[in-house]
Amino acid sequence: MMDTSDVVLVHGAWHGAGHFAALAAALTARGHRVLALDLAGHGTRARFPASYLARDVAALRTEVSPLAELGLDDVAADVVATLRRFTAPPVLAAHSMGGAVATRVAELAPELVAGLVYMTAFVPTSLGAAGAYLALPEAKTALGAGLYLGDPAALGAVRIDPRSTDAAYQDELHAAYFSDLDRSGFLAMAASLTPDQPLSFLTTPTGATPERWGSVPRTYVRTTRDRALPIALQDVMIRHADELAPATAFARTTLDAGHAVFAGAPDEVAEIIHRAPARG
Fold this sequence. Notes:
Layout: E1 6-10, H1 21-29, E2 33-36, H2 50-54, H3 57-60, H4 72-83, E3 91-95, H5 98-108, E4 115-119, H6 130-134, H7 152-155, E5 157-159, H8 167-177, H9 183-191, E6 196-198, H10 200-203, E7 218-223, H11 231-244, E8 251-255, H12 261-264, H13 266-275
Helix pairs in contact: 1-13, 4-5
């Protein structure tokens, strides 16, 4: 069980700190001090395409993202700067694409991280970048491909339109990312998503090594009903990570949940984080 009382929450693509409200409350009730981050370009730090704000859907498919030049290392360095303000290293708990950030952070500054918890999150190790894992056969059953607008390489971002009024589009967004929530809960979450996820999160290798990233105790929350990051793909990443750094092999817990496990099962996830292995 972790000795540290501090937990830093790292959100996934298009999300923000506010999406962690229920999980933060459950962790606080267990005696933890919690900081949910808005990663650069997300949440209250979002930068929006002009066409998104103007609701010019045609232009939204071609307008270059204001986040096109935002690199994974830029975001990781920003998180590292935040961690340096803690008096003792916190546990870093990451969801989905936030796992790429957390992996890079732990590689850059393992001494600032007491433990890592991956909540159905990417763990890019031996294949380099997160996008390489999405090219695997285990990713083929994932939902969400119909949500992407334009060419990510040209835009510099993976773009969605959470403000779309198209019913089929909203249905796919709900099914892919928020299947644990009822319609009203999903709509509340979707309303605060941002449209652009920097492409660099998918294309930049994390550089994970056994000596640095692999020195940090880690936990994985597997989700059996995940339609965005299928459990077969989760297991590939777990296996690759454990092959790279067997001395700190994942502690694993499996939940009968979908991708938004932080919102659908906040008490269960909080208990997992509370009991996760960590350096004191």
